[in-house]
Design a protein that fits this description.
Blueprint (H helix, E strand, L loop, with lengths): L1 H9 L9 H38 L2 H4 L10 H15 L5 H15 L8 H21 L9 H36 L8 H17 L2 H4 L6 H10 L10 E2 L4 E4 L5 E3 L26 H6 L8 H6 L34 E2 H17 L4 E8 L3 E8 L5 H5 L2 H8 L5 E3 L8 E6 L8 H5 L2 H4 L6 E7 L4 E5 L6 E4 L6 H15 L5 E6 L18 E2 L11 H25 L4 H9 L14 E6 L2 H8 L1 H13 L5 E7 L9 H6 L2 E4 L5 H8 L12 E6 L2 E7 L4 H12 L8 E2 L8 H7 L9 H11 L4 H7 L4 H13 L19 H13 L2
Parallel strand pairs: 11-15, 11-16, 12-14, 13-19, 14-15
Antiparallel strand pairs: 1-4, 2-3, 2-5, 5-6, 6-8, 7-8, 9-10, 9-18, 16-17, 17-18
Helix pairs in contact: 2-4, 2-5, 4-7, 6-7, 13-15, 19-22, 28-29
Amino acid sequence: MSVAKNKKKNKPSFSFKDERIPGLWGLFFLFLAFYCFLAFASYLFTWQDDQDAVLKFSVGLLLDSDAEIANILGRLGAITSNFFFYFLFGLPSFALCYVFFLIGRQLIIKRPLSRLSEKMFSLMIQVLFFSILLAFLFQGFSFPMGGGFGTIVSDWLVRFLGQLGTFLLFLFIGVSRFLWYLNPPLVGQPLPDLMRQIRLNLFKREKFSEDAFGLGEMKDKDLVEITAAMPIVSEPFAEPVLPGTQLALEVGRDLFLDPVVQPKKMDQGTAFLELENQPAAVTPETLKESFIAGAGLSEAIGENMDHTEPYDPTLDLSSFEQPILQLLYDYAEQQVEIDREELETHKDQIIETLLHYKIEITKIRATVGPTVTLYEIIPAPGVRISKIKNLEDDIALSLSALGIRIIAPIPGKGTIGIEVPNKKKQMVSMKEVLASDKFKRAKMDLPIALGKTISNEVFVVDLAKMPHLLMAGATGQGKSVGINSILMSLLYKKHPSQVKLVLIDPKKVELFPYSQLEHHFLAFLPNQDEPIITDTAKVIYTLNSLCIEMDNRYDLLKKASVRNIREYNEKFVQRKLNPLKGHRFLPFIVLVIDEFADLIMTAGKEVEIPIGRLAQLARAVGIHLIIATQRPSVNIITGVIKANFPARIAYKVTSKIDSRTILDTGGAEQLIGRGDMLLSVGGEMVRLQGAFIDTPEVEKVIEFISAQQGYPEPYFLPEFQGDDPENARADLKYTDLDDMLEDAARLIVSNKQGSTSMIQRRLRLGYNRAGRIMDQLQSLGIVGAADGSKPREVLIYDEQELERYLADLRSKK
């Protein structure tokens, strides 16, 4: 009897509250949208063949008729399309297919239909309007362009207002809709700026709306509903725990929530971010010291002829709008929750492993992070910390987990930490990080949001205080995504007048999308073809150009009697520095090198020396370096680099040696990849889960910025000529050449290879003179540049051609 009852109780029953019902309705509406689209499209070509039969038999056509129907979907398709086209709205009926599609999609992704109400209302208004408009424009046309509804209303308007009055009414409605939708400035804008502003408004309203992606921001109401739905107390092994919650785990079997730390609600703040470091008001005493010349910008001079206001560097691009958060995905449907059963299981396994080695603990606490959970244990008195540290591999074996990391002890706490990767990992989106209050309210010169800590808190740090950052790790572990997250942080927070980017990309593909920001955020050499530096020779010139820029800035600081860029810019903003004497507002410059190892291998000291200079001296003048490499070896990350890059990020590496090369300690080999990182800054080590941003998101942000008005010219770095053979050849005279140069040239061309040692040996010359001759041969274009220990490339292979070249050279002496 009891078995029969149980079978009856367990029998599945139908319920309208079943979570599968909305999905089925969603599929139905998607099918309906596709069906109507096919019927309507077929109607455009078959309406003349089917109209007589449909109007004559009407509904009876469905039951019994010998009439032949041309519509691709048969009788039902002909009746449906004729009803919407002939009796209702005409061509605008196609919009109903889109309406059905939106409803179906909303039901499938389990979003409330109420979010579509505003869009549905707008669509229906447009259907009615265009139905009437088409009926008015195509009066007497055989095809029902505006349908029966449009024809009736159009005829009434013509009788009431007349043909001209009706036309003017439609014209007024169209212009009003245009102004309301795009909101262009009506006066004071030249045509190119007007079109650019219209395009920007179009991006903001349509292309980057949340409905365009099918991904909406989570509203506060939804958060409240989710919070309310969470049980406060539940049975063990069943209660879900949000990431970031701190749990006190008893050494026994019981498990309970620690009320000290509660889950924090995600802040989905507004998309527009405030500018940092706005200057303070200027006192009358300060104004007496300001110069009449002012700041030198046309807008500033036009609006501030008497210079009674502080100089605003953003006036040249006063209409610039920072990117909106809707450009980024929130990955809301990819969020996961941590099951308490997993925490309980790990706790028991940790305790059991330690007891097996006769190590007792008095307390254990868990902090759940996005991808890693930190178990903090307090050992019993008398237990040596080194004993626990040596059990790292044994604990990893007992937990069957990859990436166990033991912190013994945790700095600032009297506990030992055991970091265990979660079985279900949470993706940290860039949108979530940038929307946080911590980032939006950050009062920093160069705020960068790297991701979330192990306690699920957004981690924001000031690059200007690091002051340089070294990023290293194995291939595919998140370095490029990390660089993109840093650049996105700056683009979302700063104005183009406040920061400039120098991007070096030897791989030629990673940073290429940023080339569209040429007139906004990028800085490069005047004679450079592409704003993103990829050629090794251009890299050397760019680095040396930055050294010149650094020296020039130090000269300006010396003249201004200040010690750093912040003090200098404050003085300039308060109009205490005269632009006629060379003073200017100094933006921060961030140099990003995506693959440093490739540059070291091809250029060596020519790259390392200027980088060493910049790393040692450039921080005070606002030049900061970010270097990334996938080869963390000692010949790439040299002592000069390590000494001047106190802030370092290590992604997953293959060995402890690589971890020590990057961080001077182990740990990076225990990371789990996919953005999991260790940040060493200021003597502290922080484990972070990097914020993820995909390439399409980056491209949307760049497109949003590039659509706006930029500066007339890019920000050019100082020119650097270097030892360019073309320039040296133009200045070199025949009388300056060595007497043995022609003999050396003939020797090299005849042997088809060039080396200083061969000239020295065959012509019986000293090494210095042979080297000087080789430099002159390179300047004349006879041999190529040096390539390590390899022989130089011979650029003239024919001896007759060489003789003609030398004769021409002698004729010009």
